[in-house]
Design goal:
2 domains; elongated; alpha/beta; eight-stranded mixed beta sheet; 436 residues; FAD/NAD(P)-binding domain; single chain
């Protein structure tokens, strides 16, 4: 085991392996330390890289994100796709994602495996089951890390250290502190190893974190159902919610669902008990529940899947039938039916508004699922500049320390335009910064 390298990467997901492969291609020696028993992180469950196609669109949907960081994703995304293709991995033609993005399907596992092979072929090493305990500093410069690998304590020294541990969604204390007091009760839509290691290491040497109100990326899923495996991260996500209506335990709408399922999930987290009733009519069922969320993806009937697994759901032939909603669910079905009538009558004047879908929900039967948010990763994280350098509260960089991927905060703030794209772009920028 070599304990010295030009670049030490902590975390072997999309950002970490991309940075390590890029640095290797630039002629650097690289060591990657991964806490889990295998590489890939949550990126291995993805299948698309997508983002907003222009700076203007990114600004429109993500106005409060750091301008330099959000622009970097737009500016470098095409080159990032070329980098993936350069590893022998096919990227499909672009297709619409949500109402504002363009996405490209690719085999993320094939890409991540290609990065590992490239790192090793370049003389680097990728070590799994490696627990990083602390960073090593020389004055105010980060020069390595102390870790335990295979039961052996090792001090790794490097010219640059990159934090790419995937966020802190698996750490109950941290998500309760930085997301919401209910956050630790919500399902984890992610790998279980992203427990805040990067955040802990960064703050130990004076890194700033934020933005405090950035929220998280995740999706609504049927309440009470557990993920059986990573395939459920897509199969149980109720992407169609942007065309449905969502009611809280007070039997009221509280958010513009048409802004997108990922943002509605943030809004529902802050409602009583972080659960609500999602209602779709026959039009939404036929066009969106039974359709592909992204062109080319496998379509899954989310209602039938919820019913098959014993989730809390039901079908009402008419709005009048809502009064038979089970009392133990905690909702007033007749009150919800009346709210739906009001939404249908109000059209574009409805409040909360429905900015992107004004069609009424007036075609029975109605498909009802109780839902709750599931957290994929927080948007709060380590502050960086456009070169992936970790920043202190005063905006100055910490010498020798970089961060990328879901460890980073500030790219999106109550908004989202792709996690794989952000990890790819800042992984590449980190690899270049480490070898510049």
């Amino acid at each position: 085991m070599d304990s010295t390298a030009d670049l030490l990467v902590i975390g072997a997901g999309m950002a970490g392996l991309t940075a390590a492969a890029r640095a290797t291609a630039n002629g650097a020696t690289v060591t990657v330390l991964e806490k889990g028993s295998a590489t890939g992180g949550s990126a291995q469950f993805a299948g698309y890289a997508w983002t907003a196609p222009t700076r203007e669109m990114m600004s429109e949907i993500n106005p409060h994100g750091d301008r330099a960081l959000r622009n970097a994703i737009v500016d470098d995304f095409a080159a990032g796709l070329d980098w993936i293709r350069g590893r022998g991995v096919e990227c499909a033609d672009g297709v619409p994602v949500l109402r504002y993005g363009i996405g490209h399907a690719f085999d993320t596992v094939q890409y991540l495996d290609a990065c590992v092979r490239e790192i090793k072929a370049g003389g680097g090493q990728v070590l799994t089951d490696a627990e990083v305990r602390s960073l090593v500093t020389d004055g105010d410069t980060v020069v390595g890390a102390d870790a335990v690998v295979g039961g052996e304590s090792v001090q790794f020294r490097a010219g640059t250290v990159l934090l790419a541990t995937g966020g802190f969604q698996a750490n109950h204390e941290l998500i309760d502190e930085h997301l919401h007091a209910n956050a630790s009760q919500l399902p984890l839509r992610s790998n279980p190893h992203s427990d805040g290691g990067g955040l802990r290491l960064a703050t130990s040497v004076g890194a700033d974190i934020g933005p405090r109100d950035a929220g998280f990326y995740g999706h609504l899923i049927p309440a009470g159902l557990k993920f059986r495996d990573s395939g459920d991260f897509v199969e149980l996500s109720l992407y169609y919610s942007e065309h449905a209506l969502l009611f809280n335990l007070g039997n009221k709408r509280f958010y513009d669902e048409t802004q997108g399922d990922h943002l509605t999930a943030n809004a529902l987290m802050e409602q009583p008990e972080s659960r609500g009733l999602l209602v779709a009519d026959a039009r939404v069922y036929e066009e969106f529940i039974c359709g592909s969320y992204v062109e080319g993806a496998v379509a899954v009937d989310k209602y039938s899947e919820t019913a098959k697994r014993g989730g809390r759901c039901g079908i009402a032939a008419t709005l009048e039938d809502f009064e038979y909603l089970p009392e133990e669910w905690g909702y007033d079905g007749a009150a919800i039916a009346e709210e739906i009538r009001k939404v249908n009558a109000a059209g574009q004047k409805v409040f909360p508004p429905r900015e992107y879908d004004f069609d009424p929900l007036d075609r029975g039967p109605y498909y009802i699922i109780e839902t709750t948010p599931a957290v994929t990763f927080p948007l709060v994280g380590i502050r960086i500049d456009e070169n992936a350098s970790v920043l202190r509260a005063d905006g100055s960089p910490i010498p020798g320390l970089l961060a990328a991927g879901s460890d980073v905060g500030g790219i999106y703030r109550r908004a989202y335009a792709g996690g794989i794209s952000a990890a790819l772009v800042f992984g590449l920028r980190a690899g270049d910064s480490a070898t510049r």
